[in-house]
Specification:
Helices cover 40% and strands 13% of the residues. By secondary structure, the chain is α/β, with parallel strands linked by helices. This is SAM-dependent MTase RsmB/NOP-type domain-containing protein.
Length: 608
């Protein structure tokens, strides 16, 4: 688990402390049903509140996530054509494809519902809208009660843009929605699907500048078909009220006034971040830097492509291919990297990344879509690519600071033995192996067997598999059981991920203040274990994708106190001077360097 903005249970699954968070379907039906079997009736209750009854005297009850989809009584599902036959359990099922609603908005609404329940990721939308098996189309049918056509590449990009943006701006959008409801109770008791549709409409109007008629009409139609006419009327009224306020430049946003707590609350709404993050950044960075950081986190992320020199390619070769594909780029200060620049879609630069994928550059082994900073690949979708290509994209998570610059801190040299202690998905592992020029050995250790397997497939694609061996283990147990030591040990530790929030739209809402204490304890344990693997005179590199000093400088200070046989060595000479702190650490800052935040420390073990 390379880099650590991953869920802690991923690391603990071997020792029984928790269980991994799985990407699984949420078949819970968010649609509202009413009426007797075979009938369709319109609820007459307040369209913004939960209906108190449905049908003939029966109490309305939200569908359980485990409940099977209802087969009758679905409200306002029109009889559409054409019919789509599907095979299920040996029987032929005929599904009605709804041609009235906006299909990408329907998928986005269902995905937002599943994200809210922790059953899906923001940035993972696979081939033709599927996540695995039947997937996205099936989720939509089970949730809304009707089918939609398969999504094309443009639709998939739109879903990704809308979902990521809506999640990123959730607190801001919810504040405005609540302000425009007739009373707060209407918002508090709003049906989950209705809320997602409103969030989509608000995001399209305020952040995507979608034409007003399209944003209103399409979301109203979706609410009417997926819920009931009254819900569509409510969406229509609120969105039109929003348009009037936007045109008059009088959105009802909170004023930044009062004591520190009150100001932090207002800023958390305006910039859509948790209050605890805002207060913490103001404390450590000051108000001005905190505002710059939040603006960065809400901006469109940029990504880099690393040329695979192990396969004999040069950056000039990669640039020639990019120009032939009309992909906008700029050269990085690091020789192996090209940064994908403007002309992309709003989130994850999907258009040009997909162009790179579909042109086969990854499958050819010419390059890896990977950040110069961290070497983690984000989950992007590409129609028709293999799971390995998707994994290579997954390795793209950060910017110039972490893969390229952290690997520079490690400084792999031909003939060395190196262990990457939290290796998957493998960005740093592959880059370090490429730096060894065919001489030396790298061991990739990770607790996740499946991710290790894909890492090794990626190594084979990059012609580096002879230099990399995988170890499936919990680092803490492995360090106690092995007698092996290495020239260099890299620990890219699990962390809060506070340096990469621009690329992780949902991470800000999935992190709690209490997580930091738990993560710091884990980081200390892993550092202690990693230190046992370092040869006398060898190097230990500790890195994170966090900008929080308690996960970074404070962890190293505590480690050196526990392990006096390790001495901090300055990273000066290994990375550009602008990234070297007064204490000799590597540190990148979004507000200072316009790249993702990351940290690294280089420690030398004494010979005696």
């Amino acid at each position: 688990m390379e880099g650590g903005a991953l869920a802690l249970p991923h690391f603990r699954s071997r020792v029984g402390i928790g269980s991994p968070i799985l990407l699984s379907a949420d078949p819970g039906a968010a649609r509202r049903s009413s009426g007797a079997s075979g009938r369709s009736r319109v609820s007459r209750v307040n369209p913004g509140a939960y209906p108190r009854s449905a049908g003939r005297g029966r109490t309305w009850k939200r569908d359980s996530p485990e409940a099977p989809p209802r087969r009758s009584g679905i409200t306002r599902v029109p009889n559409h054509s054409p019919e789509m036959p599907t095979e299920r359990a040996g029987r032929t099922k005929v599904s009605n494809v709804n041609l009235e609603v906006s299909h990408h908005r329907a998928v986005a609404a269902v995905r937002l519902l599943r994200i809210e329940k922790g059953k899906a990721f923001v940035d993972l939308l696979n081939e033709k809208g599927n996540s695995s098996g039947e997937n996205e189309m099936s989720y939509v049918e089970r949730t809304l009660g009707f089918s939609i056509r398969c999504l094309d590449n443009r639709d998939i990009r739109l879903v990704t843009v809308i979902v990521a943006g809506t999640v990123r701006w959730k607190r801001y959008l919810d504040y405005l929605i609540m302000s425009l409801c007739s009373e707060e109770k209407v918002f508090r008791e709003m049906e989950p699907l209705l809320l997602q549709i409103l969030r989509i409409g608000f995001f399209e109007i305020l952040k995507l500048n979608v034409p007003a008629y399209a944003a209103v009409d399409e979301n109203v139609r979706l609410a009417k078909v997926a819920l009931r006419p009254g819900a569509g009327n409510l969406v229509n009224a609120i969105l039109r009220k929003l348009l009037l306020l936007k045109e008059a430049n009088s959105l009802p946003l909170p004023k930044i006034e009062g004591d520190d707590r009150a100001q932090a609350r207002a800023l958390s709404i305006i910039y859509s971040h948790p209050v605890w993050m805002v207060r913490r950044w103001i404390r450590f960075l000051g108000k001005e830097e905190a505002l710059k950081l939040m603006k960065w986190n809400n901006s469109d992320p940029h990504f880099s492509i690393r040329v695979n020199t192990a396969n004999g390619y040069t950056r000039a070769d990669l640039i020639d291919r990019l120009e032939s594909l009309q992909v906008h780029y700029e050269k990085s200060t690091m020789d192996e990297f090209v940064r994908i620049q403007e002309g992309m879609q709003n989130y994850l630069n999907l258009f040009h990344v997909q162009t790179v994928l579909q042109a086969g550059l990854l499958k050819e082994g010419m390059c890896a879509v990977q950040d110069e900073s961290a070497g983690k690949f984000p989950c992007l979708s590409d129609s028709g690519t293999s799971h390995l290509s998707k994994h290579l994209i997954l390795m793209l998570r950060h910017e110039e600071s972490i893969v390229g610059l952290v690997v520079s801190v490690v400084d792999p040299q031909p003939g060395e033995t190196i262990i990457d202690c939290c290796a998957a998905p493998g960005g740093k592992t592959l880059f370090m192996a490429a730096r060894l020029s065919g001489q030396g050995k790298i061991w990739a250790l990770d607790i996740n067997k499946g991710r290790l397997r894909i890492l090794m497939e990626a190594a084979k694609l990059h012609n580096l598999d002879a230099m990399i061996s995988d170890i499936h283990a919990d680092l803490r147990l492995y360090a106690k059981e092995t007698t092996a030591t290495f020239d260099k040990v890299l620990l890219d530790a699990p962390c809060s991920g506070l340096g990469v929030l621009s690329k992780r739209a949902d991470l800000r809402w999935n992190r709690q203040f209490e997580d930091l204490e738990e993560l710091m304890c884990l980081q200390d344990e892993l550092l202690d274990s990693a230190s046992m693997l370092v040869k006398p005179g060898g190097i230990l590199v500790y890195s994170t994708c966090s900008i929080d000093p308690e996960e970074n400088e404070h962890r190293i200070a505590a480690f050196v106190q526990r392990h006096p046989d390790f001495v901090l060595q300055s990273v000066h000479g290994y990375v550009p001077a602008e990234f070297v702190t007064d204490e000799g650490f590597y540190s990148s800052s979004p507000t200072k360097h316009s790249i993702d935040g990351a940290f690294a420390a280089r420690l030398v073990r004494s010979v005696l």
